Each structure stands twice: as C-alpha cells, then as structure tokens.
Amino acid sequence: MSILVFIEQRDGQVRSVCREALGEATRLATALGGPVVGVCAAASDPGLAALGEAGADKVLLAAHAAFAGYDAAGYTRAVVAAVEAVKPAAVLFSASSMGRDLAPRVAARLGAGLATDCVSLAVEGGRLIAARPVYAGKALQKVAFPRTPALASLRPKVFAPVSPAGRSAAVEPLVLDHDVAASRAKVVRVAAAGGGKVDLTEAEVIVSGGRGMKGPEHFALLEDLAAALGATVGASRAVVDAGWRPHAEQVGQTGKTVSPKLYVAVGISGAIQHLAGMTSSRCIVAVNKDPEAPIFKVADYGIVGDLFEVVPAFTQAVRKLGA
User: Fold this and answer.
1) Does 44 score more than 90 pLDDT?
2) Contact present, 171 and 50 (Cβ < 8 Å)
3) Rounded CA gap, 123 and 90, in Å?
4) At residue 162, does pLDDT exceed 90?
5) Are 116 and 263 contained in the same domain?
6) Are residues 17 and 151 in the same domain?
7) Cα–chain center distance at 4
8) For the chain, what is the largest distance between any 2 Cα atoms, rounded to a whole number of angstroms?
9) Domain assignment of residue 299, given as a range
10) Is 192 inside any structural domain?
11) What is the mean pLDDT of residues 244-268?
12) Residue 247: its pLDDT value, please?
C-alpha cells in the first residue's frame, strides 16, 4: 500500500521538513510494500524531481497561480484529490505552521483520523501506529487508526531524512478544479520578518533565554553565544510576554515545538509549558543559578552558576574550539 506525503513549498522552494517526512515514509513503505508518493500545490514546479533523492517515487503537482502562497481551501482540495487518486494507507504532513493548519482540514474532508505532532511511527499487524506526546510532554500516547487512510503530522527535526543516491521522482500533473472566487478566505499579504535567521523549528542548535536574563539588553550575551555555535536564539514565554523578544522566538506549549541536536537553556527555570516544547531535543544543556530548577531534571548537562559569568566563558571556549 502506498504512502502519500504532503510536499510543503514556500516562495517556490521545497522546505526541508518535507525530506524528513519522505524519509519516514520510505521506512514505512518497506513494511507496507508500496511506493512513496508526494503531492505538492504550487504555482509552478519547485524542482520536485529532485525529491527522488529524498525517497519519493512519484510526485503529483497541483499547479495553480493561486498556489504561489498558502491557499487553505485549494491546498485541501489538492491533497484530497491526491488521496482519491492514490488510495494511500497513510498521509503524512510536517507539523509546521502550514501542516498544523492543513492536516485537520484534510482529515475533516476525508472523515479520517489524525494524529498530530508525532514523534515516532511504526507498522504493526499491517497498520500504522503513531506515538505522540500528551500532558505537556509527560507521557507518550500510542494511537491506532480504525480505517484508512491514516493521517499523521510529524514533529520537525525528529525524523531523519534518507538519501538514495541517483534517484529522481516522476512528476505528474494533478488535475484540480479550483475556483479562487469560491474560497471563503484568501491571503492578501504576507508580512515577513527580517531574514537571516533559521526558523526555530528547523534549527540544528538553539540557545534560549528566560527571565534569568533580567532584561532584553542582556540577550546580547546569548546572541554572541548563538553566533559562536551557529545557533538560533529562542526564548521562554515569560520573556516574550514581557516584550523582551518577539513571539516568533517563543519555545513551549504556546510557542514553537523544537527538536534540535543541541538546546542550550539559559536562565530558564523549566516550567512544564516550556518543557513541552523542547524535551525532544537530542542534547539539552541548562545554565541556572538554582540547583533545584526543574530544567535540570531533563538536562543532559547542567551548569549551576551565574549566567552572566558562565555564558561569556562558554562563548569564549566555543570560539577557541572553532579557531
């Protein structure tokens, strides 16, 4: 049975999170014995043939001028049309901002079950089983699907991509009748933030600060450390609520869920809402003056000390290693 993967594109570029979903689909396809098919809604082909090297056997392209930006109704119709054409056992999305909006729409149209923000997938007895965090990350819930297709969105940076060399995917048109005028909502304008920073959900290394930073001016220390590590700066909810950092940098239950290779938490006590957004990080380093701070319970390495002394020394040590 085949597996369908939604291929997310932005500004004519395929996003890296799709390669993670394709990689997991490739591993599942080994157990299910079917091909991996992608579906992409775009104004034109964003280089879909190259996704063969990420595991796709075929990609269906729903091309429409309105799909240059995210069109919720149109993208939903495209994925539903692909499901009707392919008859997949499962449909995978990335749990990105776009995927979080699109997957429930598709599930509602299909009358199918959806497991969101999954951290592992498996095939048991010929059917898909998903695991997803619940209770702010304190437990994992295993989810089965009573019917096909099974829909799942995958937490970014958790699933590894694959790289089958020398492959290219066949790109086929997906005929879609989309009336833009019939859409109940449309994107009028996208106000993008300043460039130059990797989105938190795609960052390999993140340095986050909490209330222990004592003020927005002290985040310069974290900016220096992030520059040395090649990292992206994040923040706790308390910091964002205080107006010290923009909401786009918030990590946690009401912010972004991240899974970098390295997460450095500086001056963050470790409230459960924050832990829910970063405990799937592969390595966690915590810096806090309170030895009883909850963050140390999830940290792989902990430094008890004054961050205003520790962080500059940390930055200097990293720069020496990189010299």
Assistant:
1) yes
2) no
3) 11
4) no
5) no
6) yes
7) 18
8) 62
9) 200-322
10) no
11) 93
12) 92
First CA to last CA distance, the chain: 51
pLDDT attached to residue 180: 80
Q: Residue 132 has what DSSP assignment? A: E
Show Cβ contacts of residue 104 under 8 Å, excluding neighbours closer than 6 positions.
114, 116
Phi, psi angle pair for 13, to nearest 5°: -125, 130
Both tokens of 212, joined, read: 């222990």
Question: In the prediction, which pLDDT does 196 show?
Answer: 56
> Is the distance from CB of 129 to CB of 123 less than 8 angstroms?
yes
pLDDT number for residue 33 = 85
pLDDT in tens, 273-285: 899 899 989 999 9
Strand partners, 36: 3
Residue 16 burial by Cβ neighbours in a 10 Å radius (0-12, 13-18, 19+):
middle
Q: Return the structure tokens found at 186.
A: 């449309």
Tell me if 64 sits within 8 A of 178, measured CB to CB.
Answer: yes
Establish if 132 belongs to a structural domain.
yes
CA 81 to chain centre: 24
The neighbouring-strand residues paired with 256 are: 251
pTM above 0.85, yes or no: no
In the chain, beta strands by DSSP E: 3-6, 9-10, 13-14, 36-42, 58-63, 90-94, 114-118, 120-124, 127-134, 139-144, 150-154, 170-173, 205-209, 232-235, 262-266, 283-288, 301-304
> Which residues, 6+ apart, have CB-to-CB distance to 237 below 8 Å?
250, 252, 254, 255, 271, 273, 274
